[in-house]
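Data deposition worksheet. Section B asks for the primary sequence of the deposited chain exactly as it was used as input, without tags or linkers unless they were present during the calculation. Section C holds the resulting structure in token form. Section D is free text for depositor observations; keep each observation to a single sentence. Incomplete worksheets are returned to the depositor.
Section A, Depositor: J.P.
Section B:
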Amino acid sequence: MPTMVARQIPSPFLRFLVSGGVNTLGTYLLYLALLVFMPYWLSYAIAFISGIALAYVLNRFFVFGAPRSEKKAAMLPLVYLGQYALGALTVYAWVDTFRWPAAFAPLASIALTLPLTFAGSRWLFK
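Section C:
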């Protein structure tokens, strides 16, 4: 059952966007902080893994209101593995192929991976 705050937003997709915004802001700030003393690819990987844990909590309680399930918790990384693969390819192309600023690479990744992640999360938490 979604939380009281989640009930104020009737659409799971809109709740997904809100939770994704919170997750994105947190992990993007972490990425930028790590980028100061790590290469972009390592900063991206650490921020991404941190985001998986936060996404599980947000999706379970806020977006889909799903009951606790170790199986779902164990399967969530599979959804994010697909997102990571596409995202890492996007980040690589952004920085190494196009030579665009590394600070903006994760934002391009999010734009491309959002539909995949929503579909996978929705399937998992139903």
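Section D:
The chain has one domain: 4-125.
Residues 4-125 form one domain.
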